[in-house]
Amino acid sequence: MRSRAGGPKLGSRRAKLLDMKATIELPEPVFQTLLALAEQQGSSLQAVILEAIKKEIAPGPTPTERRRVSLPLIRSRHPGSLRSLTNAEVDDILG
Predict the structure, then answer these.
(1) Cβ density class 50-78: b for 16+ within 10 Å, e for less
(2) What DSSP letter does each residue of 12-35 carry, written as one string?
(3) What is the sign, positive or negative, of the torsion defined by CA atoms of 78, 81, 85, 90?
(4) pLDDT recorded at residue 1
(5) What are residue 43's phi and psi, to 5 degrees?
(6) Short-list 52, 93, 43, CA closest to 73
(7) What is the maximal distance between C-alpha atoms in the chain?
(8) Neighbours of 15 (CB within 10 A)
(9) Ranges in the chain, pLDDT < 50
(10) How do residues 52-62 score in pLDDT, each as one tens digit?
(11) What is the pLDDT of residue 13?
């Protein structure tokens, strides 16, 4: 079994990872945005596209999913005592 790039057999111990080349068609506005981003970062167009692909295929939550959520803090009039509040009581507390 040979790799698509024409390299050594995929199952052999001598198989090497090869860089793959691809041709993609981008809408002009997307291409211009990528060029501007590369210039802004002082990077190459290839590096910007590669980083975007890596972020897209990375496992785990995305940065927006990792955001901390700030919930309202309701101070107890009697610290240490705990009882369930009804929805109406929560509404009254929150105003």
Answers:
(1) eeeeeeeeeeeeeeeeeeeeeeeeeeeee
(2) STT-------------HHHHHHHH
(3) positive
(4) 44
(5) -125, 175
(6) 93
(7) 74
(8) 13
(9) 1-3
(10) 999 888 887 66
(11) 60
Decide: 9 and 2 in contact? Cβ < 8 Å.
yes
CA distance linking residue 22 with residue 83, whole number of Å? 62
Mean predicted lDDT score pLDDT of the chain: 80
- pLDDT score of 40: 95
| Three-state SS at 2 | strand
Return the pLDDT at 2.
46
CA Rg, the chain, in Å? 27
Residue 14, pLDDT score? 62
Contacting residues for 34 by C-beta, under 8 A, at least 6 apart: 26, 45, 48, 49
Question: Cα separation of 79 and 13, whole Å?
Answer: 66
